[in-house]
Design a protein that fits this description.
single chain; EreA/ChaN-like  fold; 46% helix; globular
Amino acid sequence: MKFLTWFCILNSSLFWFSPVNWAAAQSARWVRQLEANAVALDSANLTGEANVSAIRQRIGHNYQVLGIGEQSHGTSEFFTARILLIKALASDPSLKKIGLEAPMAEVDGLNDYIRTGAGDLKSVLRSFRLYGYECQEFVELVEEVRRIGNVDKRKLQFFGFDMQSPFQSLRNIADSGMPSDAADSLKKLLHDYELLSNDIYNHSFNEGDFAELTALSNHVMGKVQLKNEQVKKSIRSYRQFLLLNNPKHAHARDVQSEIRDSLMAENVLAEVKPGEKIILLAHNAHLQKTPNIFSKSVGYYLSRKLQTGYQCIGMTTSAGFYTTFTPAAGRITSTNPVVAGDSTAFEYHFAKLNKPVYWFKTSELKAGSQNIQFPHRYRLLVYGLADNQFFEGNVLNDFDYVLHIRQTTGNHSFYLK
């Protein structure tokens, strides 16, 4: 009933609770529990030593792969928070690699820069063809990783675990040497992919083009000599690229999404070595431990394989702006709004704490929250401008830790005017 009212007797007094008051009481209980578990960080110096020490004490070393997520690929403060987390984690000498949601072969160029400092870092980032990395904040992150390696005399390495670009994989295969007819076919492949660049990144090859590309690819791959690990890895990446872009999946985004995430999980697992630790940088939706609204996630597959050896951190925000391509402007802009959520969203409640930046462990929050009705939605800002920012989900089940930054801004893309 619309105007249903409950009555109860408590301490000999008569109280009434409407559905609205009951929801408000639930929200207040949940926020009090959050307040009791949230560890405030210094928002004025996010990467400072006080925050590094606080994070280091909370995470510990009992992981093999640790995902560090983000709600969008275009948020400045998320890059800064990742620098904080990398600084905290790098004190562990068993941390060897940092995985990126970026093409495998293209990311190898970052390691050349890390080793020598020579070359144009911006050119390396442009080769990813993912504008979320082409920003000043990611340059600063790479430079911090290089600085850590120089101080510790230990070169942390990046690796890519995505397969959305064919270019550097094919160039690596070409450099390995092959008969002239296969080399000619490979040159044609690269030329055709340049002409079909939009189809690559929209995953929208037509069947005729894809059949021709596949035939050329089979001819080339039949002539390749497996001389070294780079060639083997490039072939794996390229075959995954073809699998992802098969036109039969073009109108089944859920299938395409699950193919991509399952393959990315395979690529991460291929990097796992006994006694070594890895951290991953990717979107929250890829790293969460449960299936997301789109498909099973990378984190879902890693959690099933590694059990407690996989942990993940979700990063969230409640207000501000983010950088992405804005169709109405016809270009990348940094003033796309982070929409305020309502009481059904976790971020609505996260914003109620008088802490601009804070951190909590989800298991500790859940342990003291029996009989509290939690929100059932949270923000996922997918690639590009999002009309709908909130989706069904429970961050307390999805992540081991949450780092919340109440107010955020768009990152400083190289393409901003």
